[in-house]
Amino acid sequence: MASQDEHSAPPLLRIAVANAKGGAGKSTVATNLAAALARQGQRVTLADMDAQRSSLEWLRARPRSFPAIRGMAVSERAPQRPPETDTLILDTPGGHRNAALRGELARADTILVPVLPSPMDIRAAAHFIHELLINDRVSRQRTRIAVVANRARTRMLSYRDLERFLGALGMPFLTTLRESRNYLTAADQGLGIHDLAPGAAAADVEQWAPILDFLAAEPATTRG
Predict the structure, then answer these.
(1) Which helix (H) or strand (E) holds 46?
(2) What angle do CA 94, 146, 17 make, to 5 degrees?
(3) Model pTM?
(4) Which of these, 43, 34, 47, lies nearest to 85 by C-alpha position?
(5) How many C-beta neighbours within 10 Å does residue 139 have?
(6) What is the pLDDT of the chain when averaged over all its residues?
């Protein structure tokens, strides 16, 4: 039974950053998203479901002077509502054959799928997105899926292949995150792109605007 505080709290937004293939940049997207939403004043919990715990390592390096982000290690199922949380971000591992993880994806309000511009990554993403689309909850449009091109060099032929693939999916292709050293600089300090000094990463911050707009336009629902 939900507590009185849970009944009075605003709806929880659950965002899963997912791709069955490892190395797609899920932790980079999850940590930068957490930092961006925390700077907006949201109470963010970053749930690290990957055995490597990269997101929690990033969080341990985060300076106390920056907007706080709560971290939690999750091996199976995330709690219905972590304490003091408006937005729960799930940094998921590769694979997704685990039943508990599939359940977490089904409970998400939004699934963000980062995809790299390589033939292998494009094929893997196609299979993963197909699996998501046959999920009953997603097919009934209770969970939204959006795709993000990650670590992309727009002048390369592989990026054109990625653009064609994403454009043919019939789902939101939100933005292209360029390959930028600013992500490494920020990550080393436990920061996100939005935490860097104004102007230092303006081009990268601009590329995040469609993601934040997409999330802001979605009404959160309490999912139990």
Answers:
(1) strand 44-48
(2) 35
(3) 0.86
(4) 43
(5) 11
(6) 83
